[in-house]
Amino acid sequence: MKCSYACQSPEHLLGRRQFLGGVAAGVGTVVGGGIGTLTQPVMAEQLAKQQKRVIVFNMHGGLSQLESWDPKPGTDTGGPFRAIATSQTGVHISELLPHTAKQMHRLAIIRSINTKENDHGKGMHMMLTGRKETPGMSFPQLGAVAAKSLSPESAGLPGHIIITPGGGGGRGNDSAYLGPKYASIALGNGKPPANSERPEAIAEAVDASRNDFRKQANERFNLKRRTAMTDAFVQSYDQAQQMMAQRDAFDLTKESDADQARYGKHDFGRHCLLARRLLERGVTFVQVTHSNYDTHNENFNFHLEQLGEWDQPFATLVGDLGDRGMLESTLVVVLCEFGRTPNINHLFGRDHWGTAWSVLVGGAKVIPGAVIGKTNANGTQVTDREVTAGHLFHTYLRALGVDSSGTFDIGGRPMPIADPAYSGINELIA
User: Fold this and answer.
1) I want to staple 332 with a disulfide (CB 3.0 to 4.6 A). Which of 38, 234, 362, 365 is the partner?
2) At what angle do helices 120-129 and 142-150 cross, to 10 degrees?
């Protein structure tokens, strides 16, 4: 369907609940620790809870900060919605988020973002890589960096997964020089990846024999003609086999009826429950997409509908992570490519606005209940603690215990993990 309320950029010539995916590409190396070698189940379970993980909610299209994290009721830019009190004393958010309001003691808000970028593609690149687009250079997205920095070497499941309507198991091009091992796999509809089950016509013994022969052929080939490309192919095939062996991790029918009802039996509810399931099984990075917030027309009606669907599943997931002892090791981020204009246009919409907007974070080493920065009375500019995407990227990594000033060794060349021109938000990290 045509998004008549959205801008006519190529990114938004899609249906409201479809996903825009894809950016960079590349090849690289491997790091890791490992809990798989532990033989004591209690110790393994405890360390599994302590393994650092990330879940990102991509509010694609540009969530309005005024209808979410930085409401300005009663002003000329505020719109029709009230600000409501939350579980964190003194912190108010939009009345469109009543369930999230009950979890704000576990979360924090950054209200002073200024990326100076109003283009969808460039804005999303900045928010997911912490860098501006540079001609001739590709940078790995946060998911790839997290997977390389944090995923155990022995992990059988991919470390970088994107959950989005229509995702069927395809690889993304978002790991740049870190290589395809850390590229994303797209899932959707609360189902395992397509073609991840052995065909009934092939017996298990026959399949094992085929794969043994493949491995022998690969080893023979590599003796004379090994390349980065052949290594990437072998690694991808081996990871697919490991993923097939753990196919149940993607199967939401294994979750209780009660949990499925709590999260909601719609796409986004199923995606949040799938995200929880994957995090519990050791996946390092999960990104859940909810779109489309590009509300150039009828901003208030669309946010009423969109956030009405998003609020309860998100709050349920945050509550579950907290109650299950996982929030201290799981970074939660709610981001988008930019905010929306304080000015309300003639179509009762808000346009693109990278000048003064907000991001929600929580978990890991983030100080719960914190509010960083502020905007002026009607939200037109940042008045305290201005930050941009580079600061955010450093902050995410530091919250996970990663030295964001470090480097990756890519073929003997040191590549900065994060843009060295920036640093983290110190007052947000415990």
Assistant:
1) 362
2) 20
**CA distances for 23 relative to 125, 162, 307, angstroms:** 8, 13, 27
Task: Provide the token pair at 18.
Answer: 């479809």
Alpha-carbon distance 368 to 391, whole Å? 19
| CA-derived radius of gyration, the chain | 22
Stated pTM of the model: 0.85
**Phi, psi at residue 197, to the nearest 5°?**
-120, 135
Amino acid at 271: H
Cβ neighbours around 195 below 10 Å, total:
11
Instruction: Tell me how far CA of residue 413 lies from CA of 8, 29, 32, 394, 405, in angstroms.
Output: 41, 12, 19, 21, 15
pLDDT at 87: 98
Residues 37, 43: Cα–Cα separation, whole Å: 11
Look up residue 384 and give its two tokens.
């305290």
pLDDT of residue 10: 57
Cβ atoms of 62 and 337 within 8 Å: the answer is: yes
Summarised one tens digit per residue, pLDDT across range 94-150 is: 999 999 999 999 999 999 999 999 999 999 999 999 999 999 899 999 999 999 999
How many alpha carbons fall within 13 Å on the CB side of residue 302? 24
Instruction: Show the domains of the chain with their CATH numbers.
Output: 10-191+251-428 (3.40.720.10)
Q: What is the dihedral of CA 197, 200, 205, 211, to 10 degrees?
A: -40
Distance of CA 52 to the CA centre of its chain: 14
DSSP E strands in 214-263: the ranges are: none
- Could you tell me which residue, 249 or 378, shows the higher pLDDT? 378
Question: With contact defined as beta carbons under 8 Å apart, do 313 and 263 qualify?
Answer: yes
